[in-house]
Design brief:
Strand order of the largest sheet of chain B: 6-5-7-8-9-10-11-17-16-13-12
Structural class of chain A: mainly alpha
Oligomer: heterodimer
Helix content of chain B: 10-25%
Shape of chain A: globular
Shape of chain B: globular
Largest interface: A-B, 16 and 15 residues
Number of helices of chain B: 10
Largest sheet of chain B: 11 strands, mixed
Distance between the termini of chain B: 55 Å
């Protein structure tokens, strides 16, 4: 499974999205379950799936799926977009 | 005052008939009273003089597990049995089959006393500890009524699978969440039965409201109060009742407490009034809690889930990694992938994240207590549980 697929599966699971609702350009404002507790769950999920810790400040700054990918790229995760 | 124990074998109700005819108040206890016999004997000494005649007492563990001896007035109980007869349209019913211990106020009034007051036959069984015997009694019981709790439904499906009992005309449920989503299974087993959701508590001795199964779609809807019964919601959300059939008082570890005719008594549940005079339960008072400042009623969450899940479901409590109380939803049997997806969709669509369970787990069957109710303590240590989904918190 590619890292893009792993991220997609994680976000479906954390935010309880239906597969048809998911897009890589989704923003936080479009996901009503992306609240403060959702942010905590997302950070734990990123640790579990990608093995990278996000500080609370990093996690709360994330405002879109693209932000998540950028944060992970900065930690060395390859999304195959080189 | 005297103590009468439930019997066994050919005399399952023990000396109950004789005790009822004797004006002396009696306590009716299970054959094995769980080491509470001495407590009951000491407690009976605390009862004031007016309650020493023409009453009866039943032992309840209540929601706290603390023993409580609840005193009912025989006259009030007789009147309630007559009210129930009309409200439950019981005239065509010729006999009732007991599947629950008679020491439960539900079985005591709805069945034993109802049969006595209306000259109907009462057939007590050993319950689902001997399912074959239950099956045989139900097969031969024409024009009969039974009283069940929701936990009996999976037992019926497993232990009496495929059996049909056309002689049962009335099926009553009480003592917990109404099995709204399992009604098709109940109707298949009892094709000629009218099914009722009864609601009450031992302090009500025991009934407060009633509805036909088909009169609502939500298990939380308990229908309208019986004639003479009043319900109201306290400012904190607790559901209170005032009833002409209520218990006269109770004894607990703090002593004797009288229940006056004008007293509003807690049912132990939270609830609110709905449409057309109906009442909607929000959960046991001890089950409704706040999570991150948001009030949560796990029974109402379960109610939502049941729109996407036809199996069984129950919950138990756990603290999350941040120290906040939450609940774990346990399903049985194991859901398929699409069923799980549908459940998750319902949670997201209808509830804020604070209402979501910490985990969704599944098992081949829900653990149950001897009375058929969900065993939450066993659930948290159940072997073979599968984690279907987790909040990661």
């Amino acid at each position: 499974m590619s890292n893009r697929d792993r991220l997609r599966e994680l976000l479906l699971d954390v935010f309880l999205l239906d597969p048809g609702q998911f897009r890589f350009d989704l923003t936080r404002d479009e996901v009503d379950s992306w609240d403060s507790l959702g942010t905590v769950s997302l950070a734990v999920g990123i640790q579990e799936v990608f093995g990278h810790h996000l500080s609370p400040q990093e996690a709360t700054r994330l405002a879109s799926v693209e932000d998540i990918m950028a944060a992970l790229r900065a930690k060395g995760v390859d999304f195959g977009d080189a | 005052m005297r103590v009468v124990h439930e019997g066994e074998g050919s005399a399952p109700s023990g000396d109950l008939d004789a005790a009822w005819e004797d004006p002396q108040t009696f306590a009716y206890l299970p054959r094995k009273s769980g080491g509470q016999g001495d407590w009951v004997a000491r407690t009976l000494e605390l009862v004031p003089e007016p309650l020493r005649r023409d009453h009866f007492a039943l032992l309840s563990s209540g929601s706290t597990g603390e023993p409580k001896l609840v005193f009912g007035s025989r006259d009030r109980a007789r009147r309630l049995a007559r009210v129930l007869h009309d409200a439950q349209e019981s005239e065509p019913v010729r006999r009732t089959v007991g599947l629950l211990p008679l020491t439960y106020s539900y079985a005591f009034v709805n069945q034993w006393l109802w049969a006595k007051e209306h000259g109907r036959e009462f057939l007590q069984t050993a319950g689902f500890s001997d399912p074959e015997a239950v099956g045989q009694v139900l097969e031969h019981a024409d024009d009969a009524m039974i009283c069940l709790v929701a936990g009996h439904v999976p037992l019926l499906e497993r232990q009496l699978a495929g059996r049909v009992f056309p002689g049962i005309l009335r099926v009553h449920f009480a003592g917990g969440r109404f099995p709204q989503e399992r009604l098709s299974a109940v109707s298949r087993t009892f094709p000629n039965a009218a099914i009722f959701n009864n609601y009450g508590c031992v302090e009500a001795m025991p009934r407060l409201t009633l509805r036909r199964a088909e009169a609502a779609e939500s298990a939380a809807d308990v229908g309208r109060p019986l004639p003479g019964v009043e319900l109201r919601r306290s400012p904190g959300g607790a559901l209170l009742f005032r009833s002409p059939y209520a218990a006269a008082g109770f004894c607990d570890s703090a002593g004797f407490h009288a229940i006056g005719e004008e007293d509003w008594v807690p049912t132990g549940d939270c609830g609110h009034s709905g449409e057309d005079g109906r009442w909607i339960l929000e959960g046991r008072a001890g089950e409704v809690f706040k999570r991150y400042g948001v009030k949560i009623s796990p029974p109402l969450v379960l109610d939502s889930v049941s729109s996407a899940w036809s199996g069984e479901g129950a919950f138990y409590y756990e603290t999350d990694s941040l120290g906040e109380m939450g609940h774990v939803l346990l399903l049985a049997p194991h859901p398929g992938k699409e069923e799980l997806q549908a459940i998750l969709s319902v949670l997201r669509r209808e509830h804020p994240r604070t209402h979501w369970p910490l985990r969704i787990e599944s098992a081949p069957a829900l653990p149950s207590l001897p009375n058929g109710k969900f065993d939450a303590a066993a659930a948290s240590a159940l072997e073979g549980r599968k984690i279907e989904w987790s909040q990661r918190i």
